[in-house]
Specification:
Radius of gyration of chain A: 27 Å
Number of helices of chain A: 8
Largest sheet of chain B: 10 strands, antiparallel
Structural class of chain B: mainly beta
Number of helices of chain B: 7
Oligomer: heterodimer
Low-confidence stretches of chain B: 1-9, 681-685
Distance between the termini of chain B: 36 Å
Low-confidence stretches of chain A: 1-18, 456-468, 470-478
Largest sheet of chain A: 20 strands, antiparallel
Structural class of chain A: alpha+beta
Largest interface: A-B, 36 and 43 residues
Helix content of chain A: 10-25%
Strand content of chain A: over 45%
Number of strands of chain B: 49
Shape of chain A: globular
């Protein structure tokens, strides 16, 4: 009972942390941006996340459908419309999370950070044919094979202990990465690539083949008797995994920065108390009720009883205790930022996520406004998950060391929940220290380089206010 | 979580979740039925006892029935033969009777006379005196015994009894009359008269015995005698006698009581001649059964023995010979002799044919006692040969005509409709004549009529005359079968069989020993059996054989169906084509719709070559489409009428059905379903 309570806490309140909004990668001021831009070397000297409030994230991302796709009108469900709107391969990701703790420190050109982040991530990949079959039947697949290739799911709960490092190689280039030690809590994943249904053209004979397996770890966490029988503990120190983030950022020019990073390249082991339910190459053909010229009366009930038994026998799942590995859902980001001026900049990010054997790409374009160091706002446009109307926004307020931020990838979608396919947002509070010092040093270095006097460089409040005055007309003029 | 609550409350304004309706309209494709029909499955539809496959796997109807059978008794039927005869006892010839003397004394006579004669004689005894006069008078009797005669009383058909009278008295006796009487009844068998007999004179006389009955103890009665007066003195002695000597000669007795001597009273040969009237010349007969019966009515008072011999009947090398002992009669005796197993030479050693010789001899067995007898005593004998059944018989059975009268045989080769519709191309009738006789027969006329109710077809063109071979006398009992094959090459048998008859009327006439006189034989099990054999290979044409089937419909199954297609896939090795029409009708059988375009070919016939054998597998895929309109009609329909028309296709060429043919049928259903869920009404439509 205790274990159940503990798991419940982990899942519902304590430490769930999943997808971050892509917007976050544009908010370089926010320490959590490094979770996507691993090579970025922060301009601040340190940060401390507000415990339990440094990052609260939620994500719901569907490449295949939006809620509206289910409806023909306000009270009529249109399942065919839903199916027709799907791509061949589709993806659904749901997650939410709260970061426990994070801390970072810059020492000379190196920035070190740590984070403790329990994570939960649910991913479902499915292909169009699956739902087309479920909704429209197999009549449209006569002579064809309905393959469920690309259908799979994965849900993992694990603790991430991250050790980040980035370094300014030179003025232009910085590289970095994060080594993550992972401790698995629970997992379930399944792969249905080997499931197929063929409908023959001659007489619509149906042949179902099934090669799939579902691995799961954690049943014992909610089954005390099983836990006692196995002698399993809530936390299994053998469930270790490793992940790595790495990336780089390069200033092509003063204005143009390009960056790239690979996130969540790694695996997790699920040891000793995992279970595998599988079906290895089963195949069953339904050829119709046999008819014999000399049967004295058909025995339909017997036939269908036997058919049912046969199907059960053929497709019955085998179970075994097992240890297995899962991979992290690797993401790739490639982007660029162009500073129009001190206030405005523009971003372009191409990114994507791997799930199963498929890569789900997206594109985000953004423009930003930066007022000094205390306010930044980003507006973005993203083409993702087959939807092309994702207008996102991100805000960062730096009130001294106190930083509060929020980002949403599809702001418009919040007002049209039934239309959106991508609802991801983050909110958090950090304490970020030494932002100005760093900028000032850079300015001094820059003037020195360009033989510009450094005396005008100041970070006083007064200067800040005067700078605001400079900005307002610009904003009005915009 | 809060966000979910918040967000969902927004959606409530956009959507009426309480009034949602969901329409499910999938299209389902599923197999319905898979069936493989083997040619051998056809066996289950017809009487499998008749339908079989030959060595080439071709199906054929085989029907056999015995329509005629005759045994030996048709050819050789030996009637019972009875011979009656009787015989009488023959007269008995006895030995001559040697002279027997008897006398009467003077003193006896004198005493009988009594009176003066007696006194005178008595006084004169031993002296010489005048012999007293004796007037004519009865002088009394004296016994006259035929001692040693083999009879006590006998009636004679001939014989002489000689009597000699000698006067031993010293005087002349006159007016002598002597009667010879039987002692039993005093009847005189004869009377002798003499006028005078001088002293010492002997007079003889003969008595003819024909028709007379004498006894061995007789009596001489001196009915009269007289002694005349005489003056001569004679010696008078009382012992002087009149002597009578009697003897018999040539005596033949025909009755009476006598000692019957051993004698043969019968010796006869009986010839039983089997004249069967058809010129048979039978030589050897081995009897399976046969009785030689004797019935004897025997009146002779002495025992006898009857000897029976069949000199040409042998068994294990022994000739039949037996006897019947007959006790003294009158008596009735019967005896039967079992002749089974005997081989009888009906030729009597090559002399004749068809004959059985019986020799009978009867012998009186004398008991040595005097017994009554009469030559009118008869012995009646009844000799019969009965129950003559051959185990084997040979010889020439004659030239005779064998006729099987027109006989109607029920002919049931199955009542399956489709078979009646088939026009068979190569039927064959075989008449099998299984002959275990050593007897050739030539069929000179054959009548064969196939009949189905009022329709009939008379067989013509049969190759007649046809010889039925006989068996080999060196291997009797071995059947020889002759086959008369009647096929379509020269006869109209096809027309007959294609009536699909239920009766066969058959008859024939044949001549036994048609060509020449030859040695025939038969055993008790010999028979001529005629079997009607029908062989109808499944080589036929079939045109438009229609089957109609009505299927009751539960129209509720179409409630959620928008449209449907039944896909039929048929791979057919049979050279049979099937057209199907499916009609949707209401309760009154009014046609509402059709799922086919008239009669559609659903089953394509495999192509055949010139021999009717398939050269390919015909494949046909057909979609029977029920559009939305048709489904609407199905909802209002009560039943389906399925019309199937079968034919052999192939442009009317005859086709063959082999046992290894099969047809694979697969039916699948593609149906568009419509199902509405209406949450707002809280019910399902």
């Amino acid at each position: 009972m205790k274990s159940k309570f503990l798991v419940l806490i982990l899942f519902l309140s304590g430490s769930m942390y999943a997808q971050y909004p892509t917007q976050l990668i544009l908010l370089k001021d926010v320490p959590q941006a490094k979770y996507y831009d691993a090579g970025y070397s922060p301009h601040y000297s340190s940060h401390i996340g507000f415990p339990l409030l440094s990052n609260i994230s939620a994500t719901a991302s569907s490449s295949g459908f939006a809620m509206k796709d289910f409806f023909k009108n306000k009270n009529t469900v249109d399942l065919s419309g839903f199916v027709n709107g799907l791509s061949n391969k589709n993806y659904l990701n749901i997650g939410a999370g709260i970061e426990l703790f994070t801390l970072g420190l810059k020492i000379k050109k190196n920035y070190f950070s740590i984070n403790i982040t329990p994570k939960f991530d649910f991913n479902l990949g499915y292909n169009k044919n699956l739902f087309k079959f479920l909704v429209e039947g197999n009549g449209g697949f006569v002579g064809q094979t309905i393959s469920f290739e690309g259908t799979g799911f994965d849900a993992s709960a694990y603790n991430e202990f991250g050790f980040g490092f980035s370094r300014e190689i030179n003025e232009k280039l910085s590289v970095g990465g994060r080594l993550k030690v992972l401790l698995g809590i629970a997992n379930i994943n399944g792969d249905f690539d080997g499931v197929a249904l063929h409908t023959d053209n001659d007489n619509f004979e149906i042949t179902a083949t099934s090669t799939f397996s579902v691995n799961h770890y954690g049943v014992h966490l909610i089954n005390d008797s099983l836990s006692d029988a196995w002698g399993a503990s809530i936390v299994n120190p053998s469930n270790l995994g490793y992940g790595v983030d790495f990336g780089g950022s390069y200033d092509l020019s003063e204005k143009l920065n390009v960056f790239a990073s690979v996130i969540d390249l790694g695996y997790l082991s699920w040891k000793d108390y995992g279970q595998r339910s599988y079906n290895d190459g089963a195949s069953f053909s339904f050829v119709g009720m046999p008819y014999s010229i000399d049967t004295s009366g058909s025995k339909e009930s017997d036939y269908f009883d036997k058919l049912s038994d046969s199907i059960k026998n053929v497709f019955s799942l085998k179970e075994e205790r097992t240890s297995y590995q899962t991979t992290l859902k690797t993401k790739i980001f490639i982007g660029a930022n162009y500073k129009l001026n001190k206030i405005f900049d523009a971003d372009a990010v191409a990114y994507g996520r791997f799930f199963g054997s498929k890569f789900y790409p997206s594109l985000m374009l953004g423009v930003g406004v930066k007022v000094g160091n205390w306010f930044r706002m980003k507006l973005s446009y993203a083409a993702t998950n087959g939807s092309y109307d994702n207008i996102g926004a991100g805000l960062v307020f730096n009130l001294g060391a106190f930083q509060i931020y929020g980002a949403v990838d599809d702001l418009y979608g919040l007002t049209r929940l039934d239309n959106t396919k991508n609802l991801t947002g983050s909110f958090g509070i950090n304490f970020v220290l030494g932002k100005n010092k760093d900028d000032k040093k850079k300015e001094i270095d820059k003037r020195k380089k360009n033989s510009i006097p450094v005396s005008g460089v100041t970070t006083s409040k007064k200067d800040t206010v005067s700078k605001l005055r400079d900005i307002v007309p610009v904003i009005i003029n915009l | 979580m809060l966000g979910t609550v918040f967000f969902s409350s927004c959606l409530k304004d956009e959507y009426e979740f309480d009034e949602l309706s969901v329409t499910l309209s999938p299209e389902i494709a599923a197999p319905l039925i898979t069936a493989t029909i083997q040619a051998r499955d056809i066996l289950s539809l017809v009487d499998s006892n008749m339908l079989r496959e030959n060595s080439d796997n071709l199906f054929e109807f085989i029907f056999n029935d015995t329509i005629y059978s005759i045994g030996l008794d048709k050819f050789i039927d030996i009637p019972d033969t009875v011979v009656n005869y009787d015989f009488n006892l023959s007269p008995i010839v006895i030995d001559d009777i040697t002279p027997k003397l008897t006398s009467i004394r003077l003193d006896t006579v004198a005493k009988r006379m009594g009176g003066a004669f007696y006194i005178t004689i008595q006084d004169a005894e031993g002296d010489s005196a005048k012999f007293p006069e004796f007037p004519i008078q009865n002088a009394g009797n004296t016994a006259l015994s035929l001692t040693g005669a083999p009879f006590s009383s006998a009636k004679f058909s001939e014989g002489i009894l000689k009597l000699e009278l000698t006067n031993g008295w010293p005087t002349e006796i006159t007016a002598i009359e002597i009667a010879f009487n039987r002692v039993s009844d005093g009847v005189a068998i004869d009377t002798l008269k003499y006028a005078s007999i001088m002293p010492g004179e002997t007079l003889s006389d003969s008595v003819f015995l024909e028709g007379k009955t004498i006894e061995s103890e007789m009596q001489a009665e001196f009915i009269s005698l007289a002694i005349p007066r005489t003056d001569n003195k004679v010696a008078i002695r009382g012992s002087d006698s009149l002597g009578i000597v009697i003897s018999g000669y040539n005596m033949v007795i025909v009755g009476g009581t006598a000692i019957l001597l051993d004698q043969e009273v019968l010796n006869d040969t009986i010839l039983v001649d089997f004249d069967l009237g058809l010129g048979e010349e039978l030589e050897t007969l081995v009897l399976k059964t046969g009785d030689l019966d004797f019935g004897l009515t025997y009146q002779i008072n002495e025992a006898a023995k009857l000897y029976v011999e069949l000199p040409y009947a042998t068994k294990d090398g022994e000739v039949f010979s037996d006897s019947i002992s007959v006790a003294a009669g009158p008596i009735v005796v019967s005896k039967s002799f079992d002749l089974s197993g005997y081989t009888i030479d009906l030729t009597k050693g090559g002399q004749v044919y068809n004959s059985i010789e019986t020799r009978v001899k009867a012998q009186v067995v004398s008991s040595g006692l005097i017994v009554p007898f009469d030559t009118s005593n008869t012995v009646k004998a009844n000799v019969s040969m009965k129950n003559i059944k051959p185990l084997y018989i040979d010889g020439y059975f004659g030239s005779q005509t064998l006729t099987m009268d027109l006989d109607t045989n029920d002919f049931d080769i199955g009542d399956v409709d489709i078979l009646k519709k088939m026009n068979f191309a190569d039927p064959e009738v075989t008449l099998s004549f299984c002959n275990t006789f050593g007897l050739p027969i030539e069929i000179s006329r054959l009548d064969l009529i196939m009949q189905k109710n009022l329709d009939q077809e008379v067989l013509t063109g049969v190759d007649i005359p046809f010889t039925i071979a006989g068996g080999d006398i060196n291997a009797p009992g071995t059947a020889v079968t002759s086959y008369l094959v009647i096929d379509g090459a020269s006869t109209n048998i096809e027309d007959g069989i294609n009536l699909w008859p239920n009766k066969v009327i058959a008859g024939f006439t044949g001549d036994v020993n048609p060509s020449r006189k030859e040695m025939n034989y038969a055993t008790d099990t010999s028979e001529l059996k005629v079997t009607f054999g029908l062989n109808v290979p499944f080589y036929f044409t079939l045109s438009d054989y229609e089957i109609r089937d009505t299927v009751e419909l539960d129209s509720s199954i179409f409630e959620h169906v928008l449209s449907a297609t039944i896909r039929a896939n048929v791979e057919n090795e049979f050279p049979l084509e099937g057209k199907v029409g499916i009609y949707v009708v209401d309760e009154n059988f009014v046609v509402l719709d059709s799922l086919t375009n008239g009669l559609e070919i659903l089953i394509e016939a495999a192509t055949v070559d010139a021999n009717g054998e398939t050269v390919n597998v015909a494949k046909k895929q057909t979609d029977l489409v029920a559009s939305e309109d048709a489904v609407f009609n199905l909802r209002n329909a009560a039943r389906l009428i399925i019309v199937t028309r079968l034919g052999s296709g192939n442009n009317g060429n005859a086709v063959k059905i082999y046992s290894n043919y099969s047809m694979n049928i697969k039916l699948g259903l593609l149906a568009k379903i419509n199902y509405e869920l209406n949450k707002g009404d809280n019910n399902e439509e």
